[in-house]
Specification:
Blueprint (H helix, E strand, L loop, with lengths): L1 E2 L8 E7 L17 H14 L2 E7 L1 H7 L1 H14 L7 E5 L10 E5 L2 H4 L1 H24 L5 H4 L5 H9 L11 H14 L1
Parallel strand pairs: 4-5
Antiparallel strand pairs: 1-2, 2-3
Helix pairs in contact: 1-5, 2-3
Length: 188
């Protein structure tokens, strides 16, 4: 599963998790349905119990070069390839197609809610990305990334106008492109 597709700043992050056959974690569900405290607790338990897991990303620069869909696929492929245990087949959330993937795979719509391994991947990817955005909020203060994780909230959009764009912003996303064009207009 991947997280951060709808953000206007930061990478898109994907995770891949291989769970043991007898895995049981009753609270496991889609990361979007859990509060941050519960996600953090579950992420630690998932990492302890998983046979293998990997987190990977595609940068904002790669997102701008490829587009968000292709960058999401790239992050997913990197997560799969980074596994220390090679899977026999893969379940991927959504309905993406991977013509170059060398593994058998099945796309599962709402997989982050329906399939435990996808739920687990969703949780560890979100916990990782949220922590990364909190770290980046210290480097680039004022955008509210510590609480909005790079999504286009009111505070974030106002900061684009008042502070400007950062190297972590996705230039191909319309709010950022608009802020960049405003900045260029005032520079003339």
């Amino acid at each position: 599963d991947e997280v951060g597709r709808g953000c206007i700043a930061g990478p898109v992050v994907a995770a891949c998790v291989i769970l043991p056959e007898q895995f049981s974690l009753p609270a496991l569900t889609d990361s979007k349905l859990l509060n941050a405290k519960k996600r953090n607790l579950l992420a630690e338990e998932i990492k302890k119990q998983a046979l293998a897991w990997c987190i990977a990303s595609a940068s904002s620069k790669e997102i701008d070069q490829l587009n968000i869909l292709e960058a999401s696929k790239l992050a997913i492929i990197r997560a799969i390839e980074g596994l220390k245990v090679k899977p026999t087949s893969i379940l991927i959330d959504g309905n993406m197609k991977f013509p170059t993937l060398s593994y058998n795979y099945h796309s599962v719509v709402n997989g982050d809610f329906l399939v435990p391994s996808i739920s687990a991947a969703s949780i560890i990817a979100k916990v990782y990305r949220d922590a990364l955005m909190r770290e980046l909020s210290h480097i680039y203060p004022g955008y509210g990334w510590e609480s909005n994780a790079g999504y286009g909230t009111r505070k974030h959009l106002l900061a684009l106008d008042s502070i400007g764009i950062t190297p972590e912003h996705r230039l191909s996303f319309s709010p950022v492109a608009l802020a960049k064009s405003k900045c260029m207009d005032t520079a003339l």
